[in-house]
Amino acid sequence: MLLYTDASLAKHVNELSAFERPERLPAALAGAEAARRAGARVERRAFEPADPGLLREVHAPEYLNLLRSTAESGGGTLDPDTAMNEHSWSAARLAAGAAAAAAESALSGTPAFAVVRPPGHHAESGRAMGFCYLNNAAAAASRALARGAGRVAVLDWDVHHGNGVQEIFYSDPRVLYLSVHRSPFYPGTGAAEETGEGPGEGFTVNVPLPARSGAPVYAAAFAGVLLPVLREFEPGLVVVSAGYDAHRRDPLGGMELDERDFGAFAAALRREAPLALVLEGGYDLKALAASVRETVLGAESGGPPVWRFSDDLPEPVRRARRILSRYWEGMR
Fold first, then answer.
1. What does UniProt give as GO cellular component (predicted)?
2. What is the largest CA-CA distance in the chain?
3. What is the DSSP code (8-state) at residue 224?
């Protein structure tokens, strides 16, 4: 697995968040190193910050100007929990560039992981929120399309719904957005009825789950919705918004997964298409490191998941299938 990261990403500080802090970066990298010691092939690669053309594919020019000018003036507040310092613009550009590089590597045949901060999946085309400034997963998907992927899937297992990725691609049939997340919860989006609009109708797939959901419910979501739709879509690349705040130790998530479950998710997805992972949330440092370790090992092996799929689907999964049945044969 190729690893895209940069030590200067730790210079970004969001003074409004006690959770998305610089210490997350070395914790995640320690997880990748633990995977290497356990036998995974992990190699760091150099990359460039996201160029203006790529950023304009997913964000409005005036919004990009706002981010740049806010950082150049020393920082400022963009959202009740999202602030910038003087390093935030360069860190955000690096994070988006790492995600784009991971997508290119995966398309070339080697799975890749952009271990970055700040996270990105809440950033909309013209709005920062939820600790996010530039949408890293969207940048990865856009780069893959530009490199000829044809169809790209973005699968989000962060505990929070990725409203930004959904908004950016809501009417684009080239990008399938799939999310399994806690609901009701921040940011208040991600209902099963949100399925896309116009030519993108049917290409947004949401599986909202109740608080305290654990591995059996997530396994049902993967088996009953996410994997069947993904196979039917036949993407040239899967970008994973790899958030780890659904871990049972996380101070924000309120779910019941452990690190082995994330490894199983990665292994299952590796068998479906080329895989590029992008770090999102995850705020308990020990859980973050352990989860990154298992994710790298799972993505490297592509072996069978450690959890079992169940034919007895819970109601949230059955409901998502009913809503999606008008678009996907595998949901009927």
1. cytoplasm
2. 56
3. I
List the one residue out of 61, 62, 105, 52 whose CA is nearest residue 275.
105
Tokens of 265: 């998710």
Q: Tell me the domain boundaries of the chain.
A: 5-331
Of 188, 12, 180, nearest to 96 (Cα)? 12
Q: What are phi and psi of 240, to 5 degrees?
A: -105, 120
Q: Which of these, 5, 33, 98, lies nearest to 290 by C-alpha position?
A: 33
Distance of CA 246 to the CA centre of its chain: 13
How far does Cα 143 stand from its chain's mean position?
A: 15
Q: What is the CA radius of gyration of the chain?
A: 18
Question: Could you tell me if 73 and 64 are in contact, meaning their C-beta atoms sit under 8 angstroms apart?
Answer: no
**For this structure, is 122 an active site residue?**
yes
Give the residue from 61, 120, 50, 124 showing the smallest Cα distance to 90: 50
Per-residue pLDDT of the chain (332 residues; tens, 9 = 90+): 999 999 999 999 999 999 999 999 999 999 999 999 999 999 999 999 999 999 999 999 999 999 999 999 999 999 999 999 999 999 999 999 999 999 999 999 999 999 999 999 999 999 999 999 999 999 999 999 999 999 999 999 999 999 999 999 999 999 999 999 999 999 999 999 999 999 999 999 999 999 999 999 999 999 999 999 999 999 999 999 999 999 999 999 999 999 999 999 999 999 999 999 999 999 999 999 999 999 999 999 876 665 555 667 999 999 999 999 999 999 99
> Phi and psi dihedrals of 130, rounded to 5?
55, 40
Q: What is the signed CA dihedral for 167, 169, 170, 174, rounded to 10 degrees?
A: -170
Quote the Cα angle for 316-213-221, to 5°: 45
Catalytic residue among 59, 122, 181, 247: 122
- Here the tokens at position 232 are 């039917």
5-331: what fold?
Arginase; Chain A (3.40.800)
Evaluate whether 102 touches 278 at the Cβ level (below 8 Å): yes
DSSP string, 253-305: T--BB-HHHHHHHHHHHHTTS-EEEEE-----HHHHHHHHHHHHHHHHH----
